[in-house]
Amino acid sequence: MKAYARDLAYIHDTGYTGFVKKAAPGLLRLLQQNGVLHGLVVDAGCGSGVWARALTDRGYAVLGIDISTAMIRLARLHAPAARFRAGSLFGLDLPSCDAVTSIGECVNYAFDSASGKPGLVGFFQRVHRALRPGGVLIFDVLEPGASDGAPSRRFMEGPDWAILLEVDEDRKRRILTRRIVSFRQVGRLYRRSEETHRQHLYGRAELLEELDQIGFETQLLGGYGRLRFTPAHAGILARKPA
Prior knowledge:
CATH class of the largest domain: Alpha Beta
Low-confidence stretches: none
């Protein structure tokens, strides 16, 4: 599957960064409340670098990881003080760090064959090994029931782009599929592209259990500060005991 190629990466950056911008103040408070006042934060699924920029502005060192090379190019422009690497969060080795964040359902995506429950548990294990004692993992996840069960279509547009989005949830397989047809203005014409994104859906209880077994102390989050999650969207803070 394509993973945010150049046009969809541009559209996401210009039209869909509101979630991360609203989440950033609450995320910064969570880091501070858990004693992560400085040091290295790994931004797993960094997108176009909005959260990475908020972190570096507060004095944190940042390593951003994203499977989309187009997103990495944008992130380097938006957050020049951070470091970035292209690759899957399910495969790359993680350096010793003070916190790992994965904001915006990144752990759900099925862009590579290592995704899915075993791959996610492996990611949790690598995070636990990489974190210093007292370090935290903060992420959010889509759960079964993320849609109303029937396929839906939506049309969205911006000043120089438009998207036709079709969403379908397979509740038996616990897979959410988004079929995206995008149009981006290039000169006087519009360029058309298509991407299909699939996401594995996980219940919060099963992930809390996996994290507990690995050795984390866990806390369920109803949102990031004033940004509150929808019913089938959960946040989790997992702390490596000091």
